[in-house]
Fold these 2 entries.
Entry 1:
Amino acid sequence: MRVSQRLGTIVAGRDDGWGVLYSARALRASGIRVVDLTVGEHDTPTDPAILDVMDQAARAGATRYAAVPGIDALRDAVAERVQAQSGVATARENVLIVPGGQAGLFAAHLCALDAGDVGLIVDPYYATYPGTLRAAGGHVRTVTARAVDGFQLRGDDVVSAAEAAPQARSLLVNSPNNPTGAVYTRRTLEGIADACRETDLWLVSDEVYDGQVWDGAHVSPRALPGMAERTLVVGSMSKSYAMTGSRLGWVVGPSAAIAAMADLATHTTYGVPGFIQEAARWALTEGDTLADRVAAPFRRRRRLVVAAFAGHPFLRVAPMQGGMYAFVDIRATGMSGSAFAEVLLAEARIAVMPGESFGQAGAGHIRIAMTAEDDAFGAALSAVVAVAERLAIGASETGAAELGR
Ligand code: PMP
């Protein structure tokens, strides 16, 4: 039987960017030790106190169908968190609980786009973005965030992209950013907000890393003038509370959009398990201690990255203002990010993501997730530098030899 075009085109034979991860897993399965710095997954488990609440809630009966848009107490807790962080009045009706930020991104694009509409994403982008838009029936166009701007997005470039694609209805941004580590400044966000208002775009703001800001401050574009009515914020417990497997996220936006996405939830997921929601509510109302504990290792390892690459003659790390990743320019090795990642895996048994997995603007980079304990992580960084130096010397010798010919 024929698979529908919509599903068939989500990936459609394109490289989905996860090849190195699959190779690393295959090596591991055959008993070889690999330091896995690919996926944004903590090396620490969910806090046992959160699991206790989950367990108690399940035993107390929260195993039945839960309210589809989310239990009231959790919607209220998310509304309170978002309001405290952004200053924008936010009520239960502005919050939909979904099974993870990824489901939130999909719902937000089904809300913003009709079939055939264009959604803009920023290159470099999180690897699932293009497929998510295609799954929602959209066409994807990219707007480049440039390395010379520290990967901050220019509002003018958004306007140009929207004008070049009259069917453009949405822009998806992500700050703190995966993969680049950029945290958008207020000025950047004002430029983006101006562009969205000028060209009448929905702004989908992926803020799943909002708890992991190392430099500057997290600003939600929903808080900028005239933006609450056209912004859908996607948030998640995955990264800030080490709850990746619990699949709990949210979308915050205008109440009519939330109600429409709740209809979608009724006909797709039918909600999120009640015991997970109870645990999330407890965690969110516990104050900052739990989230701070989750963020602490990344804060420490970010310093290790900065120290490992500081002043290096040719390896450049993008400004690491937030999130769980280091985005390193390895072009001086003369290799693509993919080729470099393959050599690194083969020679040093270290798995990182090729920059090309995140779009054209990521070419010649690798993304290192800060997800191994400090000693192993520090050793892996030294190995990355050593492999890159050896390859760069080889590349310049070849270059020199070719020039001499
Ligand atoms: N957005 C970004 C930028 C991400 O990196 C991720 C996960 N890696 C997600 C969304 C989805 O996270 P989750 O579905 O676990 O909430």
Entry 2:
Amino acid sequence: MAQYQLGRRRLLQASALAFAAAAAPWIASTASAARLVDEDGYDLWLRYPLVSDADRLEQYRRSLTSIARHGDGPVLANAEAELRRAIEGLTGHTPADVRASKAAIVVGRVQDSAVLRSSVDEDRDFRLREQGFVITSVGARNGRRRIFVIGHTERGVLSGVFHLIRLLQLHTPLSKVSTRQNPAVGLRMMNHWDNRSGSIERGYAGTTIFGWDDLPVISDRHVDYARAMASIGINASVINNVNADADFITSGMLDKLAPLAALFHSWGISLWLSVDYASPLVLTTDDEDPIATADPADPRVRQWWSAKAGEIFSKLDGFGGFLVKANSEGRPGPLDYGRTHAEGANMLAKAVRPHGGKIVWRSFVHEDFSDWAEYQYRTFAPLDGDFDDNVILQTKYGPIDFQVREPVHPLFGRMRRTHQMVELQLTQEYTGHAMHTCYLAPMWREVLSFPTQGPVSGPTVAEILAEGSLRKPCTGIAGVSNFGNDHDWTGYQLGAANTYAFGRMCWDTDTDPRDLAEEWVRMTFGTDAKVTRAVVDILASSRETYEAYSSPLGLGYFTNPGGDHFEPNPRATLFQSHHTTAEGTGFDRTAATGSGFAGQYPKAWQDVYESPDTCPDELLLFMHWVRYDHRLRSGSTVIQHIYDTHFQGVEEAHRFLLAWRALAGRVDGQRHADIEAAFTAQLEHARLWRDVVVGFYFDYSRRVDERRSWFQVALGGRRVLLGGRANLLP
Ligand code: GCW
């Protein structure tokens, strides 16, 4: 475990112990605390506690008395088992197993039963796409209800069952559970940056959940992972790091992975693998007749990948395809052999095509550091239309690297003849790791609803990603997972809100992030309205809060590029990410005088971004270099805005802590203490962010803060003079 993580963990533990000692009498005095059984977060949102509302409990007990399933196979069996498990927990009664004609709840595929066919609207509902579902609730005798969960496919039925379970967890009246849903995009994919060693790149919740060395034995953690992913509509999971280890596609490893693929398949999830583009070269080194190249034009390389694909698809149930990071950050790729990214991807696409496989090719390249943002577009825009139709280009939401705010990548609006995916990040690499609460769904919503051709000209990113799913599931949304083998899965409990919201937003890209936060809070902490309101308010404002104390006006990347992207260090990214001087700050990315990035957008957006007068303030310093006294729309100067927001951000982090403390007794003691410790640590670190950033800007600008007087702060081994020179002691 990285040294800082140990430090962080000690900080968290110390805070938890300190809090527990101080708060013990306080909690003990709260009678209701005695009723709340301690939890550790392992159950995530899949908690099925007895329904607390007496009337609803009575209605559920009267109606949800039996289940019938049409159709066989592991997916439908898992769907029924999960539904049974949920009803048992929520009602305290075990539903009987009866014939469909008598059952209170009937689940199955529309083609498997006349009963199901009769309960769906022939015209309206049969446009269900591959993984869609219908839930109908019909009045039965003596006020009971009969419920039908129907899909075209087993995966559709499974998604429908989890949707019904979610409605029951939220205490929805049975008369209001009817719905018809299709997923917005075809591929709803987790990317795990899990290494063969068991470590996780940019992971802050322990080591890999996949336990490579214990495979082929399947663990409870494997099963609970598959359940959790299926419950939020995830249908694809890349289990290893994009900085791929070729070992993952060796025959021996494939034999170990086979049961995991079968488990995923039984929960409607296709297993994918990241592959090392140089695998033919790496894996034949000790052969009698090694392949000395990875050139996609080489016949032996093509033959090797074709044979390897055949082996993989034959061994791994429901295998989806390969995720590829090539010619990026030192990874091998087709450019090493004078081939284009498209030529490199298409060779792999031909290898997997006979098996219905796909290739997801990442556009994250930044070998030209003059402007990281501009290089990706220049590399990929000319290749639009050159990729085979089972290749999907996966692009990070912004042109830099998962910052708390970036302009939406211009490639989405440009690659109109290429299947695309957007890559979002659930693990908080640049947004506070597993210490800072930073609910990212509001940002994801901004990205997905971004009109790509101009402020009022679509299609939006979501519409572009949805197009493919109409024809075939060859577009989608990927998220870099925040899961690790910590017992709470995400390293800090509120981090699971990002996991939950990601899956739900992939299914329905129009969902309001606040609604998702409320769903998650109620499923995770129960239906206490005070808890729901307080935690939803915290989550809903947490991204802006993190941005306020860490990143002025879209600048971002104030952490050490070669480090863990956690500690503030604005000096470390001078020139790479900002051009701060005594006169001003920002990065000129205009077409007229800067890197030209703003010119990569369609004209309607270029006209907005090109001028500081029309550029949105929240992206001002991403697109422009301006003088410290440049006036924002708020009337504030840039430098005063930087001072104000960094102090206000810390005040917000303090409010989170106090709001959480006020919930003592309404959340079980174990989770309350755990989350209290996280907020305590976050506040401490937010202060460090504030002091370093405002100290840095005072150092350069020498502009005095018009609103507050500062003082010298001694932080650990570092003394930062706020209002003076930032001095690093030897
Ligand atoms: O942000 C950078 C990260 C790398 C990551 C890379 C990528 C998996 O620092 O850890 O490598 O992006 O997205 O490929």
